[in-house]
Structure formats: structure tokens, C-alpha cells
From TrEMBL:
A Gene Ontology cellular-component term: plasma membrane
Protein species of origin: Longicatena caecimuris
Name of the protein this chain belongs to: Uncharacterized membrane protein YjjP (DUF1212 family)
Superkingdom in the source lineage: Bacteria
Pfam families named among the record's database cross-references: ThrE
Length: 254
């Protein structure tokens, strides 16, 4: 077994986990477990942050190390579950390096949901939040429409690898702009409920949760990093909405 190949395969598993929104301790534990599933590995250590992976293994008394950079992060709980299940199966059943790599590649290539389904359920979520915030069915319908628009816009910008701060700021700005436009047409709607319901799609709920979990687990560096990421997303949302609201107020108010 070649150490560099094992490092590449296990590092790829860790990268998929981070990109899917996994907790740091889960990423480290999964990579170490995959390494120890090969009896040639005498020792394995990993150090992971939200933006990078450091993995080292010892084979035949020689230690090899690999460093990987992670540029994008999202949410894919199905991917996390499949890799976690694969690592546990590997601990019980001996996989060859080629078999492990093949299964990881299949997980990495698997498409989560179609674009249309993503838009539909994002819009349904926005409409559901409007009901949760005690809005009327009309406001829920408006929130549904706004959620459809901002999800399409954010997906379009994500495909072009734009900065996450600008994606959230522009998405929030469009949410406020469309909500204000609908309020002009439907004066009996509550513009606050429409805006709040639609921007819930942009709120970094997983980042906030993982920041707390990583901090409680003792991964203070990762916890602070994720908390800063969530804070910047919140600022981006506020900037986008505040910019549009200030323009409408200057032009005569909402």
C-alpha cells in the first residue's frame, strides 16, 4: 500500500465532509477511522479547521503528511451520513484502497437534488416561515414567490464561485426589493413578515449550530471560525436589506 494514495483517498473523504457541513470532530474521527481500517497503518492523526485539513499516517515506521485546502462549504446531510456509514463499514470489513476510493468517488458525484426541486422546497420553506410568523395566506404566497427568486439568484451566483458575503448580501437585497414591490401592489400585506420569512433561507443555521458543537467539543479554533462565518453572513444580510430599505425611505418610504 502506498502512503500517498491512502492520504489522498482519506483526505478526499474529509474534504467532502467539510464541504457538506460536518462538525470538525466528526471529520477528524472519520478520517482516523478510515486510516486505521488498513492494518498497515501504525498510527494516524488529523487536525482539521473549516478551511483546511492536515492528515498524517505512519506506515512501516515512516510518517507521511498531507495538507489540503477547502474552499467551499455547504449543507449536504446525506453525504455526511453516507461517508460516516462507509467509515464504520470499513472498520468492520476490509476494503481495498481502490474499493474505498471508488465508493467515495460515487458519493462525491451523487447529485443531491435537481435544481427545480431545490427551488420548490426553498420557496415552500419561505412560505412556511410566513405562516410561522403569523402571516396570512397572501403573505405566505408572496414569501413563496420571493423565496423562489432569491434561491435562483443565490444558486446562479454560487455556480460562478462568488464570495459568500456578496451572495448573501445580494440575495437579501433582492428579497427586500421584491417584498417592497409586492407590498406596493398588495397594500394589505405586511412587508416585514415577507422579508423576514424569505431571508430565513439565507440564515446560517448550520454554521451557528456547528460553532456551538465544535466549541463544546473543545475545538475552539473551529468554533470561533464558524461563529465568525455566521456573524459575517448576518452582517451581509443586514447590509443587503438595509441598502434597499434606505433607498425606498429616501424615495418616500414604504
Amino acid at each position: 500500500m502506498k502512503s500517498d494514495q491512502l492520504l489522498n483517498v482519506v483526505g478526499y473523504a474529509g474534504k467532502l465532509l467539510i464541504e457538506s457541513g460536518a462538525e470538525i470532530y466528526r471529520v477528524e474521527e472519520t478520517m482516523v477511522r478510515l486510516c486505521h481500517s488498513f492494518h498497515e497503518v501504525q498510527d494516524a492523526e488529523s487536525f482539521v479547521t473549516p478551511t483546511g485539513i492536515m492528515l498524517s499516517i505512519t506506515v512501516d515506521g515512516k510518517t507521511s503528511t498531507k495538507i489540503m485546502r477547502v474552499h467551499s462549504r455547504g449543507v449536504d446531510l446525506n453525504c455526511i451520513d453516507r461517508i460516516n456509514a462507509l467509515s464504520r463499514r470499513a472498520s468492520e470489513t476490509a476494503f481495498s484502497l481502490e474499493e474505498l476510493n471508488q465508493q467515495l468517488q460515487e458519493i462525491g458525484r451523487k447529485e443531491r437534488y435537481s435544481f427545480g426541486m431545490t427551488l420548490l422546497f426553498s420557496a415552500l420553506s419561505a412560505g412556511g416561515f410566513a405562516i410561522f410568523f403569523q402571516g396570512s395566506m397572501l403573505e405566505a404566497g408572496c414569501a413563496f414567490f420571493i423565496g423562489l427568486i432569491i434561491k435562483a439568484i443565490t444558486c446562479f451566483m454560487e455556480q460562478r464561485d462568488l464570495n459568500n458575503f456578496f451572495i448573501n448580501a445580494i440575495g437579501a437585497a433582492f428579497a427586500a426589493m421584491v417584498a417592497l414591490g409586492l407590498h406596493k401592489l398588495l397594500t394589505n400585506t405586511d412587508v416585514d413578515i415577507m422579508i423576514i420569512s424569505s431571508i430565513m433561507l439565507l440564515v446560517p443555521g448550520l454554521a451557528i449550530t456547528n460553532a456551538i458543537r465544535d466549541t463544546v467539543a473543545g475545538d475552539y479554533l473551529s468554533g470561533v471560525a464558524r461563529a465568525c462565518e455566521a456573524f459575517l453572513v448576518a452582517i451581509a444580510i443586514a447590509v443587503g436589506i438595509g441598502f434597499i430599505l434606505s433607498i425606498f425611505m429616501v424615495q418616500g418610504g414604504v
